[in-house]
Amino acid sequence: MQARIKNPVALFPTVYPAVQEILKAAGEGGVPETTMHLLHHRTSQINGCGFCVVGGVAAAKKAGETDERLHAVTAWRDAPYFTDAERAALELAESMTRLSDSSDPVPDRIWDAAAEHFDEKQLGSIVLMVGMTNLFNRVNVATRQVAGPTW
């Protein structure tokens, strides 16, 4: 396996600090770190981004996430390991990631379910994390970044 080009973040040195600032801000919204890692992982699975799945698992485990939950997140609806808040966040992440699957891609019922568990700032954090993960996934998939090694 070989990447088509270097990771574009490496090609444009000013991008990495900007991305890090956005992620830092998203992390300050009060959403548990493990939830943010689950959102990154599930979004990356949906988008088929091996680079982010592999890197995301390592980061999640470093933050204390369990193998059991990381393995089960692909089937979170049918697995007993997730809280109601995590389930609402995962459903929002899936909806935000699969925009073209529905004429109402992020319906009120999904947003409202998340809003039952998260305040406005936390919802903002979730939206930023999922949005940034979708950005990473699209960049990495388009350029065929290889899972494992860093750029």
Can you walk through the features of this model?
Helices cover 64% and strands 0% of the residues. It is built from eight helices and no strands. The two termini are 14 Å apart.
Summarize the structure.
This protein is an all-alpha fold and 151 residues long. It has helices at 8-11, 15-27, 33-47, 50-62, 67-72, 84-97, 108-115, 120-142.
List keywords for this structure.
globular, mainly alpha
- Based on helices, strands and strand pairing, what is the structural class? mainly alpha
Overall helicity: 55-70%
Order of helices and strands: HHHHHHHH
Distance between the first and last residues' Cα = 14 Å
Per the principal axes of the C-alpha atoms, what is the gross shape?
Answer: globular
Q: Give the strand tally.
A: 0
Name the quaternary structure. single chain
Number of helices: 8
Largest sheet: none
Taking all Cα atoms into account, the compactness measure Rg is 15 Å
Query: Unreliable runs, pLDDT <50, ≥5 residues?
Result: none
What's the overall average pLDDT, rounded? 96
Strand content: under 5%
